[in-house]
Write a structure and sequence with these properties.
Blueprint: H1 2-21, H2 25-38, H3 43-55, H4 59-72, H5 77-90, H6 93-106, H7 111-123, H8 127-140, H9 152-183, H10 190-199, H11 232-237, H12 239-252, E1 257-258, E2 280-287, E3 290-291, H13 293-297, H14 300-306, E4 321-326, E5 330-335, E6 342-350, E7 355-359, E8 362-364, E9 372-374, E10 380-384, E11 390-398, H15 404-421
Antiparallel strand pairs: 1-2, 2-3, 2-4, 4-11, 5-10, 6-9, 6-11, 7-8, 7-10
Helix pairs in contact: 1-2, 2-3, 3-4, 4-5, 5-6, 5-7, 6-7, 7-8, 8-9
């Protein structure tokens, strides 16, 4: 008996499909109705009847079909979304809101349901709730090229609504905080201002993302206060001597190697354009903790200066020191370093106009002779848009918040890692 019933349903489904393909929607509806006479819980028939009624403009019939479908099943978020659309067309906002809530109960990350919630709250002038819903939709939406064409304008509208709301919120906070800013004039409030900018979307949050070895509880600071590094005065004072040694090296036209050197069988990701390219080259003085004897011998004054800085000791990785040459019209893509146990120092030597450097939210221009220290495990990038080369002396130092005992153990750790892999190499610290 059950087998015969199932066979009847299959025959009727095939007839309904043929009727739809032929454009005979009334006949299709009759076939779906006959199936429901056999099995009142037949999900495909309920869904099809609801769709046919919706396309035909009969919202009441669509509501009946979709309501029955959610009662029978309700496990598919699309069932609830379809019903919510019907309620919207019927002007029943209370039922629409509850149905969207049920849809998000099935899948809280459903893009269409979030867009519909934002649209409903927007129509109800509930701007705070609309901003949250639209913001969530814009956040989870894939890139436009991966979206269905019909969804692209809806997601764009959601993002625009969120951005406008955030801008209004930011202006409101700025005005409300202005009296306190005025009273505290002269106080160091950069971190607080940054916290507000991040909250309202004027800036992104950037964290330390050590690619290989991360030391916990070290502050992730884009550019460090130079007062923490009294030895920088001596480095800057030697800028002229260091630049002359570099220029002499440059006249020799040897010793420079591409900074990025991946073998062809390794993933190159963002480094494809600069891999093995002379557009970003380095004259290494100390490379991966090893002194480059021939190069260092050509720069004795620079090496003397470097001996006075707190160079990290991590076998196979640091210390590191080099002249970095970035050729005209070249951009170093955004990237992060391997460990936050050490920081990176730049001493600008030759800086034409059109050069810049960004770490996290902080973008700066190099000034010859003015050094800075930054955390390279925070996303950073550099560019030279001029017609001349840019040259910076780059070297690393211990993170100043590491204790002497911690530094000693990190040095021991790097030696142990090198010993483990032996001649195979491969560990980066």
């Amino acid at each position: 008996m059950a087998a015969g019933r199932e066979q009847d349903i299959q025959v009727l489904e095939a007839q309904a499909d043929q009727a739809v393909e032929a454009g005979r929607e009334a006949d299709a509806a009759a076939f779906w109705g006959r199936i429901l006479e056999i099995d009142p819980r037949h999900e495909r028939s309920l869904s099809a009847l609801g769709q046919l009624a919706f396309r035909g403009g009969d919202m009441e019939a669509a509501k009946v079909a979709f309501e029955r479908l959610t009662q029978v099943s309700g496990k598919d978020v699309l069932q609830w979304v379809n019903l919510a659309v019907v309620y919207r067309n019927l002007g029943d906002e209370a039922a629409e809101e509850e149905t969207i809530r049920r849809a998000l109960g099935v899948d809280a990350m459903d893009l269409m349901a979030l867009l519909m919630r934002g649209n409903l709250y927007d129509r109800q002038n509930k701007r705070h709730q609309a901003a949250r819903a639209y913001g969530a939709a814009a956040t989870i939406a894939p890139p436009p090229e991966r979206l269905h064409a019909a969804l692209r304008p809806l997601v764009a509208q959601a993002a625009a609504y969120r951005d406008k709301y955030d801008a209004e919120f930011a202006t409101f906070l700025d005005q409300g905080l202005q009296p306190q800013y005025a009273e505290l004039d002269g106080s160091e409030l950069k971190r607080f201002r940054d916290s507000v900018d991040i909250m309202v979307g004027r800036k992104r949050r950037y964290d330390s993302r050590s690619a290989r070895y991360h030391f916990p509880e070290l502050p992730a600071i884009e550019f460090f206060d130079r007062a923490q590094f009294p030895w920088l005065d001596a480095v800057e004072a030697a800028t002229g001597v260091i630049r002359e040694e570099f220029l002499e090296v440059l006249r020799g036209e040897d010793g420079f190697t591409p900074y990025i050197q991946y073998p062809p069988d390794e993933p190159q990701n963002q480094w494809v354009e600069l891999n093995n390219s002379p557009r970003w080259s380095a004259f290494h003085l100390i490379e991966m903790s090893s002194l480059v004897q021939a190069n260092a011998a050509r720069c004795p004054q620079t090496m003397k200066i470097l001996a006075g800085v707190p160079q990290p000791e991590m076998k196979g990785r640091t210390p590191s020191a080099m002249f970095s040459l970035l050729k005209p019209k070249t951009r170093i893509p955004a990237h992060t370093g391997v460990t936050n146990a050490r920081l990176v120092t730049h001493l600008p030597l030759i800086i034409p106009g059109g050069c810049g450097f960004r770490v996290g939210n902080d973008t700066r221009e190099w000034i010859p002779g003015n050094a800075w220290v930054f955390d390279d495990t925070i996303e950073h990038e550099a560019w030279n848009e001029s017609d001349k080369p840019r040259v910076v002396l780059i070297f690393d130092i211990w993170h100043p918040h590491l204790t002497a005992a911690e530094r000693r153990m990190i040095t021991a750790l790097s030696s142990a890692m090198e010993a483990f892999v032996g001649d195979a190499g491969g560990f980066e610290l």
